[in-house]
Amino acid sequence: MLRLGSLFCSGKKENNVPKLPCLVINARYLRLKSNQNSMNKDYENLSFKDFENMPGLNLKETAQEFSNYISNWDSRDHWNYRQECVSGCKPQVDIIHKGKLYKDCVGLVFNDYLGFTQHPEVKKAAISAIEQYGVGAAASPAIGGHMSYHRQIEEKIAGFFRRDAAMLYTTGYTANSATMQALFKKEDLAILDEGVHASMWEGMQTTNVFKFPHNHMERLERALKNTKGKYRNTVVVIDGVYSQQADIAYLDQIVKLCKYYGAYLAMDDAHGVGVIGKTGRGVIELYDLYQEVDIITGTFSKTFGHLGGYVVSNRGLIQYLKFQSRQHIFSVTATPASACILKSIDLIDEEPFWKDKLWRNINYLKDGLIGMGFDLGNTQSAIIPVMTGNPNLNAEACQLLMKAGVYANQIGYPAVPKKRARIRMSIMATHEREHLDKVLNAWQWVDSQLKITNKTNLNYGKKTEEYTRESGVNKGGTDRNSLAIDEGERPHVFTGDENHQADGAQ
Questions:
Q1: Residue 287, SS3?
Q2: What whole-number distance in Å separates Cα of residue 377 and Cα of residue 195?
Q3: At 502, is the secondary structure helix, strand, or coil?
Q4: Can you give the pLDDT at residue 459?
Q5: Residue 485: pLDDT band with limits 50, 70, 90
Q6: Which whole number is the average pLDDT over 491-499?
Q7: Whole-structure pTM value
Q8: Is 454 exposed, middle or buried (0-12, 13-18, 19+ CB in 10 A)?
Q9: Which of 18-27, 171-180, 277-286, 412-421 has the lowest mean pLDDT?
């Protein structure tokens, strides 16, 4: 117990630094103990976001509290993150979980949609480049690190989207965050779909931000109309395919709105390339709007099977970014192994059967899950989410799937709203029918244990609306079930507290 006398002490200076009164110190201690007692009872209702900034706790105390949180979840077999894969990115993998080896699990965690991480020609291209250039570039692009293979990748990815120029980053995450930070400042405004990737949100730290409900065109138009002429530059920021919702942007409507209100348009189609469009060029091909998106961003870590990010635009803007984006000019360039991307880009056209097989797999698994009564949201891509609606139920489902030989991801807040917790599965062209049957059997068993189909609000009790053969795009209209924005809401400077979407792998 604290003695009354201990609550007071001198506020004199030592070495010209004022001492904190003991009253403040002890009040802080009491808050710490109160927080600890409360959280010990409530760990299962907390999320990662609760630990981003903990008032009253210093860095060491916050880290300890997060460690306690992990231990609590782990003790209930609810901690299913950072599993160790010992077999590589394949449709069937070996996983170490809690010291136990789970062999031959169906891998549903990889965004290797066409299976190019294991394609013999892609691996051969990486090995050949390493033999020619070595294993590293050892310099930033402006002062020695720009190699021939970098130029070749830039030219090829620009041509892939029928545009003039492109530049490279070492990750897709940086391609988004660094580009936005370099281009848009305090005089500008960014209007974001609330579902865009976390990397785009990070890029908003230098400018004003307004978010609109996911895929809600009326709210987007209202934001554009209300802010027209009030900022130097206005940019609308969207994903082509959204990584958590798994649906597709209404690009045709968005382009029209941007043109009418004089806004720029930036689109990250990391999950659309290789999957959507007749030749796999993504949402921009689906709508045939190659020249209408001002800034195209993406990653080489999904369909292209490697690592890195790109920005595609007009030649003048790309030249500006190459010397104004700090993360680009002060980072070492991609390693020679990235030359394998050149072959991956070629394979999109040379071997289109991979995309065809991917869509057969998507539709087979999706129809099977819908037939069981699971809520898959509005998926229109190679990402299939199964809604559980509860973080603890989500964790239990993930754990049972592992026991059944299925390796999938549990996704919760803040990546998605708390009541839309889900198991997210990424489908690959290299999955075979027996893999998908194993997944369906596993879900049937999991549902018998947890009664998920009885606990979620089903969006679908039958097959989804008609999907186009080439793209998987739902032919329905705008989703009107988004969260509302108050009439009086105004753009604000990014604070880092926004609830952002994240797949953690740009």
A1: coil
A2: 14
A3: coil
A4: 42
A5: very low
A6: 38
A7: 0.83
A8: exposed
A9: 18-27
Residue 42 binned pLDDT confidence (cut-offs 50, 70, 90) = confident
The rounded distance, in Å, linking the Cα atoms of 140 and 137 is 8
Close Cβ partners of 383 (under 8 Å, ≥ 6 residues apart): 241, 243, 244, 246, 271, 424, 425, 426, 427
Q: Are strands 492-493 and 309-313 parallel, antiparallel or unpaired?
A: unpaired
Tell me the HSE value of 17 on the side-chain side, using a 13 A CA sphere: 4
Question: DSSP string covering 221-274, please?
Answer: HHHHHHHTTSSS-EEEEEESB-TTT--B--HHHHHHHHHHHT-EEEEE-TTTTT
The Cα–Cα gap between 152 and 130 comes to: 16
Query: Helix and strand tally (H, E) in the chain?
Result: 16, 17
- Asked if pLDDT for residue 470 goes beyond 50, the answer is no
Other beta carbons within 10 Å of 484? 9
Cβ proximity of 395 and 81 under 8 Å: no
In angstroms, what CA-CA distances link 239 with 43, 85, 177, 271, 404?
Answer: 33, 29, 14, 9, 34
Report, as an integer, the average pLDDT of 119-135. 98
- pLDDT tens per residue across span 228-239: 999 999 999 999
AA letter at 352:
P
Q: For residues 117 and 35, which has the higher predicted lDDT (pLDDT)? A: 117
Alpha carbon 434 to its chain centroid, in Å, reads: 29
Q: In which region does residue 82 sit, left (phi positive, over 0), alpha (psi from -120 to 50) or beta (all else)?
A: left
Chain position carrying tokens 């600890």:
36
